[in-house]
Specification:
Elements: H1 7-15, H2 18-33, E1 36-37, H3 45-49, E2 57-61, H4 86-99, H5 110-115, E3 117-121, E4 126-127, H6 139-153, E5 158-162, H7 163-167, E6 179-183, H8 200-210
Parallel strand pairs: 2-3, 2-5, 5-6
Antiparallel strand pairs: 1-4
Length: about 220
């Protein structure tokens, strides 16, 4: 596996765990016999683009998009030239309403990642056209461990939890040290049940400024 920068030391205990070795064996078989997203070289992009030392926010997704050309290792993000899926469209609507950012033409969120937002899915891979198809392969243990390590080793991180799957991770987070912002999921099925109007972007920046950190530049159109 290629280096993940300063995450290498943080995640070393996980990468040497027998449970991770089982995930790797499973993925080797899956990638060789099925179409799996994202591309194996994009699998850990969330860590590559957001160094541990610069981490300010954890935005938690569920599993990668499962259609061609979409997933590239960052939750909710799609590659340039791909139409933003419905949940991302709603995220952009809330972004505009909350902090006045223009709605971008691209659904690529790499800029957020480079600003210090870890765009982490709870499952890092998926079989083409089969949502949640890798949710039982061990990723839950791995990503739960990542969340726990961040909670333990960092201070004053904002955890943004949208929807039931993400909100179930609250027990992993030390709320004395960190801020949790939670709401309904931005999916069209639930966005009107508390996602719209939840102001996650301004609340994140208000907190970061209150603890002496530089706020996130959420504007993707610059």
């Amino acid at each position: 596996m290629l280096s993940l920068g300063d995450w290498d030391e943080v995640l070393a205990p996980l990468f040497h765990d027998e449970r991770y070795l089982k995930i790797r064996a499973f993925l080797k078989e899956e990638y060789s016999t099925h179409t799996v997203f994202p591309d194996m070289y994009d699998l850990y992009n969330c860590f590559r683009y957001t160094p541990f030392s610069k981490l300010k926010v954890v935005l938690l997704g569920q599993d990668p998009y499962h259609n061609y050309g979409q997933a590239h290792g960052l939750c909710f993000s799609v590659q340039d030239g791909i139409a933003p899926p419905p949940s991302l469209v709603n995220i952009f609507k809330e972004l505009e309403s909350d902090v006045g950012c223009n709605i971008p033409s691209s659904g690529n969120l790499t800029k957020w990642a480079k600003e210090g937002v870890l765009l982490l899915n709870t499952s890092l891979t998926v079989r083409a056209h089969q949502a949640n198809s890798h949710s039982k392969c061990g990723w839950a243990w791995f990503t739960d461990s990542v969340i726990s390590l961040i909670s333990e080793k960092k201070e004053h991180i904002v955890f943004i939890l949208w929807g039931g799957n993400a909100r179930s991770k609250k027990p992993l987070i030390d709320q004395k040290k960190h801020l949790i912002i939670e709401s309904a999921h931005p999916s069209p099925l639930s966005a009107y049940n508390g996602f719209f109007g939840s102001k996650p972007f301004s609340r994140t920046n208000d907190y970061l400024e209150s603890v002496g950190k530089t706020p996130i530049d959420w504007d993707l159109t610059k």
